[in-house]
């Protein structure tokens, strides 16, 4: 049988053989990528995060994705340094984590990332002195209250976006890294966004998307910079997650709850430098990559103009 196929092939013209080989290689490549996708999403075990160190530091842990990360990391047996702006909310979150996972040690640090950042970062440094912080989740982030053109973005919003998303992420990382370098181990997770990486543009959210593009490139450079020091840097790229920032209350197949996202997210820590941990998001990413960019640009612009219109309407009702 094999001889027969070989004879048949030998009698074919060279161009057809090249064509068939290319087709075979493409099918092989596609099949391997599907197998890899199944493995990393459903079969690959998560790393033992306690091997990085016994403490995790999370920014923005009082709501949304950050809060879910705090609960999940406590569930995995890590002690927590929670960095948030609201002392009452920090106290509430720590108490509910302690009531669920009694043995978790928790230290709260009050930092308003849009306020005096240097002062806040020096307080973080003081608190983590002597703690083996092995996991850092740079989650804190702000977006627009609703979509708007760049000339409609006021100075305060512009400054908050850059201070919280860019400066905050950079300075907290700088504060935590020396300990990790000394211990030769650590995992840093920076929360990026599909707005900068999955879709070609995010019109009417330009500054937000651009800050997340910074987070993406910052993460990739650090991944290479610190790989040999035993530190795994990763940019996680969520698409929509049901939080107050996304103005989505209920989860669905393509929009996970914060808990659903954080459970998936923990399993990816320490692996690829860039990932989208919630598997239905990776289907949307594949779809976006297969469409012409102009089609996505046009759809996104229409979608964001709709958000702007509804936001303006709400604002004008509030004023009445
Ligand atoms: N939700 C999504 O669909 C989505 C998609 C892609 C990426 N992301 C990214 O995921 C991360 C978390 O977003 P989220 O949806 O969970 O947001 P969220 O529900 O609005 O929670 C944001 C967290 O950050 C804190 N925070 C905001 N401004 C702060 C400041 N100036 N100083 C200190 N803390 C501050 C909030 O504190 P308070 O509790 O005091 O408000 C809260 O704990 C962000 O980086 C976001 O860009 C989200």
TrEMBL record:
According to the UniProt entry, the coiled-coil residues are: none
The answer to whether the entry has keyword Transmembrane is yes
One Gene Ontology cellular component: endoplasmic reticulum
CDD domains (alphabetical)? 17beta-HSD1_like_SDR_c (cd05356)
Segments spanning the bilayer are 15-40
Keywords from UniProt, A to Z, are: Membrane, Oxidoreductase, Transmembrane, Transmembrane helix
The domain of life is: Eukaryota
What InterPro entries would the database entry show?
NAD(P)-bd_dom_sf, SDR_fam, VLCFA-Steroid_DH
Q: Which Pfam families match?
A: adh_short
A GO MF annotation of the entry reads: ketoreductase activity
Keyword Ribonucleoprotein in record: no
Q: Write out the similarity annotation.
A: Belongs to the short-chain dehydrogenases/reductases (SDR) family.
Question: What's the protein name?
Answer: Very-long-chain 3-oxoacyl-CoA reductase 1
The scientific name of the source species is Sesamum indicum
Instruction: Output the lineage of the source organism.
Output: Eukaryota, Viridiplantae, Streptophyta, Embryophyta, Tracheophyta
């Amino acid at each position: 049988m094999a001889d027969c196929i070989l004879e048949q092939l030998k009698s074919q013209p060279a161009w057809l053989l090249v064509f068939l080989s290319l087709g075979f290689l493409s099918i092989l490549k596609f099949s391997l990528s599907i197998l890899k996708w199944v493995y990393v999403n459903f079969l690959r075990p998560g790393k033992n995060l306690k091997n990085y160190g016994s403490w995790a530091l999370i920014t923005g842990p009082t709501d949304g994705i950050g809060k879910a990360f705090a609960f999940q990391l406590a569930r995995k047996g890590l002690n927590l340094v929670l960095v948030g702006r609201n002392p009452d909310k920090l106290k509430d979150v720590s108490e509910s984590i302690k009531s669920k996972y009694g043995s978790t040690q928790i230290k709260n640090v009050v930092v308003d990332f849009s306020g005096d950042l240097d002062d806040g970062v020096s307080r973080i440094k003081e608190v983590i002195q002597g703690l083996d912080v092995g996991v850092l989740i740079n989650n804190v982030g702000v977006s627009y209250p609703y979509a708007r053109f760049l000339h409609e973005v006021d100075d305060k919003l512009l400054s908050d976006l850059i201070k919280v998303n860019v400066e905050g992420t950079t300075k907290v990382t700088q504060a935590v890294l020396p300990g990790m370098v000394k211990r030769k181990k650590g995992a840093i997770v920076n929360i990026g966004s599909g707005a900068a990486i999955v879709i070609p543009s995010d019109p009417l959210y330009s500054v937000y998307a651009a800050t997340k593009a910074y987070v993406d490139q910052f993460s990739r450079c650090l991944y290479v910079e610190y790989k040999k020091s035993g530190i795994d840097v990763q940019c996680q790229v969520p698409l929509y997650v049901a939080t107050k920032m996304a103005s989505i209350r209920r989860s669905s197949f393509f929009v996970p709850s914060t808990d659903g996202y954080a459970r998936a997210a923990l399993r990816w820590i320490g692996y690829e430098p860039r990932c989208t941990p919630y598997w239905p998001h990776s289907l949307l990413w594949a779809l976006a990559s297969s469409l012409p960019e102009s089609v996505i640009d046009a759809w996104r612009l229409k979608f964001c103009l709709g958000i702007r219109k509804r936001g303006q309407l709400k604002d004008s009702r509030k004023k009445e």
